[in-house]
Amino acid sequence: MKRRGARRNDANHQAGICCSVPLWRFLASVRLTIALLLLLAATSAVGTLIPQGGSPADYIRQYGEIGYRLAYVFDLFDMYHSWWFRGLILLLTANIVVCTWKRFPAVWRTVSAETLNLPARRSGQDGSSRNLSNPASLKRSKSEYEKYIGRRFRRFRTDPIENGFRIVAEKGRWTRLGVTGVHLSVVVLLVGGLIGSLFGFDGYVNIAEGESVDRIRLRTNGAVVPLGFEIFCEDFDVSFYDTGAPKEYRSRLRILEEGRTVLQKDIIVNDPLRYKGIHLFQSSYGTLPPTALTLSFSPAGFRRGHSQQGRRRSKGGSAGTGSSILPQGNTG
Fold it and tell me: Highest-confidence range of 3-17, 47-61, 91-105, 196-210, by mean pLDDT?
């Protein structure tokens, strides 16, 4: 008992030292947690309202030059990669870690205690205990109740009281670690978001049906990034509702390395292909330019051109069709 009391006093002494540090008190504040969550919710709403990763010309056209300059200073056009958004995520991570660390010793003492240590004031007013009387002998009743309680509780203790005995039982002690587990899971999510913000990228590419690409263009600065493998679009289909609105885009993709297929999957919206930490989403489709143009000459001097339809479709794209009429003139 003395040894346990010494360890508890040391833990309380260390906690007192930590709590006396202003930075530690700041990070251990629940008010800080609430403030950070509200700030992140507000900034996320701003990031939803303002399109991210667009071109400067589009922003100037929409918000004007002054609005564009002001938003550019605060990185509102690439908000999730801005220094202040990363700072909020980092501060919230530190806040959760410190709050969990501050409360964990008391929780662990309760979980790892070798004996039951329930407060005496819990006398049944909260429904956690019950008073029973039995006309049988005290010794016989005690043995029967201990067997009954022992089948339902792993930990129990029998204490003598005036004119009888008291059985104290407990189960579900490890559930107190649930809060710590939730906090750690949130920390994992926040750290993952930071890693993605620092080292991840967001880009796009158009892939014609029957063709492959091995690089993408970033949305933030337009730089071209090699992937280290090829994405081959084997087939593309789009279905429509009766109203004519698109119902589903489906692309059959293959991942090629050194000309060999290593992965194949049909992707649709919100069901990406994942390979080497890169997620390939189906985002849209479009019309590709015609592959060839055939010219015919009429007696009146008009030259009429028709594009030849091929099997060229874009990833999330429709067949490339079209025709053109060339201006009147001599054949030369």
Answer: 91-105
Tell me which amino acid residue 206 is: N
DSSP state of 172: -
Q: How far is residue 172 from each of residues 83, 153, 178, measured CA to CA in Å?
A: 44, 9, 11
Look up the pTM and report it: 0.58
> Taking a C-beta distance cutoff of 8 angstroms, is the pair 318, 287 a contact?
yes
Q: Is the CA virtual torsion 216, 227, 284, 294 positive or negative?
A: positive
Partner residues linked to 274 by β-bridges? 279
What is the mean predicted confidence (pLDDT) over 64-74?
A: 87
201 phi-psi bin (left φ>0, alpha ψ -120 to 50, beta other): beta
Please report which helix (H) or strand (E) contains residue 231, including its range. Answer: strand 224-240
Gap between the Cα atoms of 329 and 332, Å rounded: 9
As given in the structure block, the two tokens for residue 86 are: 């990363």
Q: How far apart are the C-alpha atoms of 120 and 117, rounded to whole Å?
A: 9
